[in-house]
Every structure is written in C-alpha cells, then in structure tokens.
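Supplementary material to the annual report.
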Amino acid sequence: MIFILRTAFNNAFRHWVRTCLTILGLTVAILAFGLLQTVITAWYSKAASASTARLVTRNATSLIFDLPIHYKEQISGIQGIGEVAFAQWFGGVFKDPKNFFPQFAVSKNYLKVFPDFILNEDDQLAWIKERRGAIVGRQLADRFDFKVGDKIPLQGTLYPGNWEFIISGIYEGSDATKVTDRMFFHWDYLNSRLAGMPANPLLKPNTVGVFISTIELPEFAARVSDLIDYSFENSNAPTFTETEQAFQLGFVAMSDQIIEAIRTVSYVIVFIILAVMANTMSMSVRERTREFATMKALGFKPNFLTALILSESILIAIIGGSIAVILTPPSAKAFQLATDSIFPIFLVSQQTVILQIISSITVGILAGVFPSLQVYRVRVVDGLRAIS
Amino acid sequence: MRSNLVEINNIKKSYFRGGQIIEVLRNINLGVPEGGFTVLMGPSGSGKSTLLNLIAGIDKPDSGSLKISGLDITGLDEGELAEWRSGNIGFIFQFYNLMPVLTARQNVELPLLLSGLPAKSRRLRAEFVLEVVGLQDRLHHYPNELSGGQQQRVAIARAVVSDPTLIVADEPTGDLDKQSAKDILNLLHRLNLEAGKTIVMVTHDINATHAAQKVVNLDKGELVDERTTDH
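Predicted assembly:
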C-alpha cells in the first residue's frame, strides 16, 4: 500500500507542470460547482429559514389583492391561533431603483410573531413612539451603512409621493441563516396617509396584504388553515392560508427553471473537468505503457496496476478538490460582495462541501478507469515495444 | 551431461500484420540446459526475440509445447503466467526498463513486492544484490542519475534479486558502449559460473558467444544452427 501511494505520488508529479495545470483546472471547476450550489442554497434560504409554525393568509384570488383589516379579529378568534400580525408590501425606491430592498408596513406586534428578528427593548419603544419610525435588518443596515437616527427617503411607486422614515433600530437575526435585508415601518402611518389621498380602487385604506399568525400546534397547520379560509369562504375577499414556508416556496417555484438551469450547469462543469482529466490521465498512462508492460512482465497483475493508476488519479483529484473546498467560503464572500448583496444569505452549506468532495473523488475514479482499462488490455510484448 | 531446464517442441508462432499472417517461428525444437548460458543469434526478423518472449512466458505460441522445469507453460492463463513469471523469470531488457520514479534500491526491490517478504528483508536483499553488481554507493540514485552501464547493472540486480529459475536477457548490451557492454557480459558470465544461473540471451554481439555454452542461430523463423562450446 505504501509502495502504491508513494509511486502514485511520484508518478503524479513527474510532469509537474501538466499535473499542476490539471489540479488548477480541477480546483476552478470544483470551486465553480460549489459556488453554483451555494447560489441554489441561497435561493432557497428565505424558504428554508421560514417557519412551519406560522400561517400566512392572503387573498385567494391573488396576492396583488388586499384583505380588509377587520379580518384580524376573526382570525384571532379561531381555535389554535396565537398572535396575529399583518403586513403590507410598500415597494418604494431608495435613491435609485437598483438599490432595491423589501419594505413592509406592519402591525405593532409584528416582532412578536417573528421572534427570529431580535430588537432590543429601548429600540422597540423608540420605534413604537415614532410615527415615521422604521426598523432595518442588520444585512440591510450594513449594505447601505444605515445607523439609528438616519432618515431614509423613499420614492413611492405603489403608494405615490415622497416618504421619509427615521431609523429607530436595527434588528438582528437569531442566527446566521436568518435573512435580515428588510425594512419594517408602521402600517398606521401608511394607512393614515392613504386616507388623505384621492380615492383609488387599488389603494384602499384599512386593507393589508397578508395576515401572519402563529399557531399553537404546528402539526395542525393544515386544519387551522382550512378553518381560516372556511371563515371567509363566502365573503367579498375569500382567503388562502398556508404555512410561511409553503408561502415562501411559492415565490421560489416561480424561478424553478432558472434554478434547474444553474443546477445543470454546475454538473456540466464537473463533467467537463472529468473529460479533461480523463484525457490527461490517458496521455500520462500511454507515455508509460512500457513501464506498465515491464511490471506485468515482472509478474504484477493488472489489478495492481489499476490500483496504481487509480491512486494517482484520485490523488490529483483530492488535491484539486481540497484546494477548491478551502477556497469556496472566501470566494463565496467575494461573490456576495460583487453581486451587491443580491443574496443576503450566501453561506457554503455542509451539503455543498460534501457534494464537492464526492464530485472530486468521483472525477478521480472515473478519470482513472479508462487508462486502467488500456493498461489492463495491453499485451506485455506490445507494451514492451512501446516508445516511452 | 546437463539436463534441460527448457524443453521446446515443435513451436510455431505467427502474427497477423497488415492484413496478412506472418509466420515468425516454424517448428522450433530446442533444449536449454540447466545452469547453462545459451545465446540466441540471428539477423533482424529471424524470430530470436519472439522465441525469447515465449520462453519468458510473456507471449504464447500458436502450437507446440514449451516446458520449463517440467511445466508446460503454454497451458497457463494470463494470471497463472504472471504468477509463474514472478517466481521463475528474471528479465534483462535492452533499454533497462527501470522505473524512473524509483531509486536503484527501490527498482531492485520491485519484484520482491510479490514475494510477501517483509519490508526490511526486501531492503536488505536489494542492497546485497546491488553490492554484488558493484552499485553499493548508488542505492538512492534515480535511473536518470546513472550511466547506461550502471542502469543495466541495476536491471541485472532486479533480475536476480528474487532468485529466479531462469534469466532472460534481450540484447542487454545493445544500448551500451564497448566497455560497458564488456562489463555487463562479464557480470552475466559471473552470474552463470559462480551463482549457477541459467541464462538465455538474445544478442547481435559476437563477443557474447565467448561466454556462452550454447549458441543457437535462427534465420527466417527457423533454427538453422545449434552448437555447444566447451565453456
């Protein structure tokens, strides 16, 4: 075994430039694979961090239609429901449309429903007191360098006019996987300004986009959802209720084809490097045909030579793969910064690292199979005549 | 009168090349005496290397029998032949065929990996044989750090390290200068005389016949002359 490993190592680096270039190619490919897998993970991160113990109730016709605010009392009265909060999409522009970030007008108890957002008590009190107060998440604050007391001017899109909010606090995520790229402000403020605007059938006061409710027993989420929807079945605005996770996955599903394309590309990259490495290994082994024939003449069986070739191939793959695994987290960070925080959570998951390792070893094994077969088949007398 | 280690009876061998069958060996009958030094000679294409390959068990005849120490090796499959070669044949090639990534000592140790000997015994044995061929101060040198003559001596050490029944040498002096060739022939002669090794050697070198006890001439695939000398 020691002989095989030592010889595999020596053989791998006898043409060190070629081997280093192969390792470089493999590193780039496995790194790209890891980054694309991380993009997919990031895409699902909001859904992954969403809860199954919260229900989201929206208009059954479409999310673009609102629900009357008085539904809150009815929902609160349904058995199994805990706290009920609500939110309305605002969609303002901060200086430039490319500075997009989500803004919601929310109820005062919103943070009670989302304990994953942590805001200290002083800031909570300050926010409640300030009519134009807003709280921003840590990721959003870092992105625009927002500080408590800063004024955020927003140009209304759905809701016309210029709006100005004062940052009352910066909330944190309960852990690193929580997305904190949103701004919340008082629904009361939005509603009061809306009441003063000319009548618009699409912008009615006293309406909200969604109700978010906590449930006491998550295993009865489907039953409680049915009860909510049943309550409004014959109203002017029937509802559709699902868990928060299902609600978020519904958004992700809209981009399913893009995700599938990214996933496919990530595997194609691995396949390309497999072809490149198989070719390199074949060349390398073909150059050594006489050496392998000599070993066969000395009595070494094809299985031993296969082990020698596979060890060399896997060794190269492991070196390239390991470098890629080490480089993936800093590259992911750089990628996140370069893409202007499109992905607020861009963490390399354990599953991605495992996939990278499996891909590297698979490439190493498969790249060594074809040259091993060449050596397996070559007759000793023909091999001995081969030119080194 | 020595008994024959190798008994060849009515061996035929042909290859299929360029769309036609080429007969390389026709009805060869030959005996190689145990402990003898037999030289196969003949012009290029006469079939001497093919005959050596058959004796070494790295090629198979079309017909006929080839017995070595009483065992007909033509009936062995590839796996059995590989195992048989590892215990019975020592190879010396024209271009040495050493592993460039292994040192002289590691190259000599190579056949012993198949013997099941512990690592220390393998190392000591390889060092001893390298001392016998006069390379005790080149143990850790790689082939590219050795001259042609030295590389061939490493190859000879590799051929004898597992104490094989038969040593086959295919033009072992063909790639060497005059002095190195002479040294190698002397070394093979010593192995034959002092260690009693049976050697079959293919060569064009007429000087090689001086050490031989039997000289076999082949031409166009036929054995045309076979003579024993008084060495």
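Chain B has a mean pLDDT of 89.
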